[in-house]
Amino acid sequence: MVALTVNGQAHVLAVPRDAPLLNVLRNDLGLNGPKYGCGLGECGACSVLVDGIEARACVIPVGGVEGRHVITLEGLGHAAQLHPVQQAFTDCQAAQCGYCLNGMIVATVALLARRPQPTDAQVRDALAHNLCRCGAHLEILQAVQRAAALMAMA
Asked: Residue 53: helix, strand or coil by DSSP?
C-alpha cells in the first residue's frame, strides 16, 4: 500500500512501491495531464510538481513520493478557472500538437514560483530540458512572459 496526496486529495493505493509514479497517476488515478514521452526523464512530457519542485514522473517510484504533495496539470486549474500559466499558454496559442504542453506548463509554474519576473535567458534555461518537436518555441517563450505578467497583476 502506498499513501499519496495528489492534487490535494489523499489516496491509498495497492500498487508496488517501485511502480513509476507516471503509471500510477495515469492508470490508477486517471490523470492524463502527464504524458509518457521518453520513459527516461529526458523529455519533460511527464512532469509534475513534487512539493513545488518540477519532477519527472516516469523515473520516480511511487513509493518515493509517499508523504509528499504531488500536483499534476489537472491540479493547477480547471476549465472554469484556469491557472494563470494555463491561461497564458492559451492566450499565446503556445501549442501545436500539445504533447509537450504538460511539461512546459509545469516547468513554467515551478520557474515562476522561484523567479516571478524571469529574464528571457532564465526562461530558456528553465525550459531547456522540456522538448517540443513541433517548433512552438517562440509562442511558448511568449506564454511564459505573459504568465509572469498575469501573476504579477493577481
From this structure: strand
Mean pLDDT of the chain: 95
CA distance 68 to 86: 24
How confident is the model at residue 137, as a pLDDT? 84
The CATH number of the domain holding residue 96 is 1.10.150.120
Per residue in 9-28, pLDDT (tens digit) is 999 999 999 999 999 999 99
Nearest in space to 90 (alpha carbons), one of 143, 22, 51 = 143
**Which helix H or strand E contains 69, and what residues bound it?**
strand 69-71
Which of residues 58, 75, 92 is at a domain's end? 75
Q: CA 53: distance to chain centroid?
A: 10
Alpha-carbon gap, residue 1 to 4, rounded angstroms: 10
* Unique residue bearing C-alpha cell 528571457: 120
Distance (Å, whole) CA 58 – CA 37: 9
